[in-house]
């Protein structure tokens, strides 16, 4: 039997402009660029990873820049928002910081917490939620007492909310609360534990720039991945084989509600090919693309990190 997932591993979105993406996530949100590489399935597409000082699982937001991709159309099934955790007393700091950077936001109250909602340059909806977290923050541009502590969670909008809820229960999540049409599930870990399900009518959407492509959940080991692979197949779900993503191993499954989940191991992590103090400073490539470095660097637009 596989171990319950303790929570989110990473969240991945599609964006248009790589430079605007770097400037926003490092310059406005104050996250660390922990890995600068390429899509393992497309060596001419960058893959940018942001997180805390070490890129700890539960903190990492990854982005694929596709300059010519069409904009996303909101609707089901989708992951309409990612939530970052900030210290509960820091929301006034973040209001001032978002104002200073010309980022419009609105304030939401739900399930006993306050969230600042805004969009990144690609149109992806993000939220800063006042919530306690044990994560060590990256404090290069935001003071420690206000800095982002990784993810609080994500919001999902499935085509079938009950099917997505059942899949989350398979991963070890439990029902934690309801507020209107928002149903909260929570993992048993110490960080990045929240998945909200919106149980509401919506038109069918389209993946594109500004959409969150998938949500990855942590699992302790490769043995757990293999056990989940067998369990999901027994439930007639279409699950991928276990894949080596260099910094973790993982598998993918789209639940019957239409949400794409990835299950990912917590090791070996992002310090595999760069020391912790140098994370994100070099353009790194997986070994199978190493001989193509000159070609790759000549084709990708310049990026200032």
Automatic annotation (TrEMBL):
The source's domain of life comes to Archaea
Cross-referenced PANTHER family = RING-CLEAVING DIOXYGENASE MHQA-RELATED, RING-CLEAVING DIOXYGENASE MHQE-RELATED
The UniProt entry, under Gene3D superfamilies, shows:
2,3-Dihydroxybiphenyl 1,2-Dioxygenase, domain 1
Tell me which species this is from.
Salarchaeum japonicum
Pfam families noted in UniProt = Glyoxalase (PF00903)
Does the record bear Transmembrane in its keywords? no
Task: Give the protein's recorded name.
Answer: Ring-cleaving dioxygenase
The record's listing under InterPro entries reads: Extradiol_RC_dioxygenase, Glyas_Bleomycin-R_OHBP_Dase, Glyas_Fos-R_dOase_dom, VOC_core
Domain VOC as annotated: residue spans: 7-131, 150-266
List, in alphabetical order, the Gene Ontology terms for molecular function in this entry. Answer: dioxygenase activity
């Amino acid at each position: 039997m596989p171990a319950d997932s303790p929570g989110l591993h990473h969240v991945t979105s599609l964006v248009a402009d790589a430079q605007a993406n770097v400037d926003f996530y490092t310059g406005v949100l104050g996250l660390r660029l922990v890995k600068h590489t390429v899509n393992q399935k497309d060596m001419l597409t960058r893959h940018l990873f942001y997180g805390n000082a070490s890129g700890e699982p539960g903190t990492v937001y990854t982005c694929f820049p596709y300059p010519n991709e069409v904009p996303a159309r909101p609707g089901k099934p989708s992951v309409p928002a990612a939530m970052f955790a900030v210290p509960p007393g820091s929301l006034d700091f973040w209001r001032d910081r978002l104002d200073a950077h010309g980022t419009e936001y609105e304030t939401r109250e739900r399930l006993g917490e306050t969230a600042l909602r805004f969009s990144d340059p690609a149109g992806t909806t993000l939220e800063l939620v006042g919530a306690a977290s044990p994560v060590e923050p990256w404090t290069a541009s935001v003071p420690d007492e206000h800095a982002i502590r990784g993810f609080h969670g994500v919001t999902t909008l499935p085509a079938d909310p009950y099917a997505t809820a059942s899949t989350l229960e398979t991963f070890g999540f439990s029902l934690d609360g309801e507020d209107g049409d928002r149903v909260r599930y929570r993992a048993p870990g110490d960080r990045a534990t929240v998945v909200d399900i919106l149980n509401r009518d919506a038109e069918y959407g389209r993946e594109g720039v500004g959409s969150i492509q998938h949500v990855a959940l942590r699992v302790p080991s490769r043995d757990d991945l293999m056990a989940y692979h067998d369990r999901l197949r027994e439930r007639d779900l279409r699950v991928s084989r276990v894949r080596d993503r260099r910094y973790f191993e993982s598998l993918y499954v789209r639940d019957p509600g239409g949400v794409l989940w990835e299950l990912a191991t917590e090791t070996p992590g992002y310090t595999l090919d760069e020391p912790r103090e140098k994370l994100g400073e070099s353009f790194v490539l997986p070994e199978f693309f190493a001989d193509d470095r000159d070609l790759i660097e000549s084709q990708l637009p310049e990026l200032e990190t």
